[in-house]
Amino acid sequence: MPAAAPPAEPEPAPPVVPGYVLETLLGRGGSGEVWRALPRRGGEAVAVKVLVAGEPERQAREAVMLGALDHPHLVRLIEVVHQPRRGGVARVALVLELLAGGSLAALLARRGRLRPGEVVTAIAPVAAALAHAHGAGVVHGDLSPGNIVFTAEGRPVLTDLGVARVLGETAAAEVTPPYVDPTVARGGAPGPASDVFGVAAAAFHALTGIAPWNAATPADTLAVAAGGHLPDLAELAPDAPAALVAVIHRGLAADPHDRGSAAAFALDLRHACRPEPVRLPADGVPDAELGRTDRGPRTELTHQVPGRRARPAPVIAGAPGRGAQVRDRLRGGARVVTPRSAVLVCALALLVAVGWVGIRWAGGDAAGVDAGTVSAAVGSDLPQAPPTTPAPPTGAAVPVADRQEAPTSVQGWRAVVTELYDRRAAAFVAGSPAGLADVYAEGSPLRAADEEHARSLAAAGEALRGFAPTVVAVTAAAAEPGRVEMDLVDRWAGYEVVAAADPEGPAVRSVPGRAEATVRMVLMRTPAGWRIQSAQRLG
Which residue ranges are recorded for the region named Disordered (predicted)? Predict the structure, then answer.
């Protein structure tokens, strides 16, 4: 009589995470589990990453890092939840956006390889996200197709920043051998150049169908990587555009100094080949890569990162940004801020409080603005400062924002601000950061933020379509020589993000509009005319 089959192991019971109902296990790795979950208070499904192993300090660092790095192609952290445990240290759970399109690794396992235009669409935005992180003094350290994950609409998102590190930090490095930088495989420290290698290696695999390094075991693969002898990309992808092959080849250069920056890689990749939408299966890519904590065989390399300080970042005055809001939402205890994670916060201080591509004014108190100084002046005369430059020749049409005289009514100020809004929108639609010089006063933190977001948009090969904020009214204004502070009401309709190479083509994604809101704004008179110094959303 045949022996009875052993009973199947029961599915693991989902952990308890305050505020969420965990439904389906998406993935399990060495540091924890990822579950599909629903908020108890209602809302869209999310991914909850429950950290069950590792040092609490590292977990805190990951939470701070995810909350502070704000980019459309970096996984979005919704909140951090502490799980109280009787008699033990509370666990940390990260609530992340649910990326329903599956990973690039799963897509390649299903399709083999991508078309050249799809490679550009999948990889260039990720390189732009890396450039954003590098600008904040943070490296990823272990980039592979497993942590490039798509939304349901096909937008690529870089995940698994738990292995990332502040430049100058001492730590062990976990790597995925088929995509590791040979310098790191030989014991070197991960840095921006190794991230460029990683994103180029992902592009190599997407274009050819095979990873750069291959062997029977992870240890053998690591040894192959340390040797640094790459397969011939041109032979493996004979039909690929030569310019695309050249960009990927440069990113895989043996000398890290020859690889260029992540921003340059993103831009050059975009210009090397016309992008096209990534074809995801109609039923999605069913795998465990939706925010999973482990991506297959990994080898831990222990080494000492050279003892250099993280490069200082400029501190920009303004309201708390997204990172501060995330840290303030920690549940079940105080903020997760340790001495090492505090260094990270300093390194990320350049992230100012504006939304993606700088199209939302900050909330909270703006530096240099006294809420009590705005006077209700609708219909009243405002002091007029004497002009500081000669008047233009008779008949010359000088835009209202470029005039030296101060308008004497709120209607006049509305015309000035409307012109500045139009210029700002045109700069983003045209992908021209230089155009923002005609919007902001020199030294305005908003200008620096807008320029950074415009560069990130360009590096991702994307543009805006239909972005046109409207100034509804100026409700109050108070002027003094060379400066005016006003309250205004603005709004904008929904708009679309499109491929820069095909601005009339299908939208990559849609961005909802915003209803009317009150904004407090300060304009300064400059030699070129009136320019925005600061702006904050009220209420």
Answer: 278-324
